[in-house]
Input
Amino acid sequence: LIELSDHGGRKNGMASLSVREPSFRATVRPAPVTSVIADDLAAGYVPDIRRLLSEAARRWQTAPAAVTIESGLPPHTGLGSKTTTLLAIGKAYVMLNQKTISTDQLAAIARRGRTSGASVNLIDGGGFLVDGGHKAPLKLAADSHRHLRPSGFAIPAQIPPALIRTDFPPWPIVLILASGHHVY
Output
């Protein structure tokens, strides 16, 4: 994920793969006021979801909605749970309001894709992809704390492009997630 050597010229490029399980499931429906109910896995994202819906309503004059997350993704496991949660709900919300808003526009107001473009680029097409990351500033390693930040805190930039996108072969995949406290 991260190039700290100053020699590659890029940062935060990665290879990514969409998987069927674990999966994310939510319902977004019209409501008189916006509300968000989430399961335990997605509960930490409720403030971000509210902020996303509020910003979408302000920008695109959309109506309130009730969001219920029935099945969230495990956070901090490398599955892109926050990006997937925000963008899936954002896409359902703008469809509910009969708006045509691109995934990139939703990612910008959700503050996603500022580090890696992996999850953002997988939203519309799934499969396997390699994204090119961002151009690394000169002397990245000398000031890495300034330049290597999570998406929500990174300096806004264009979402890294998908350099390769293809279907993944029908090979079995074993995904092992530790139970209990995650260290990250």
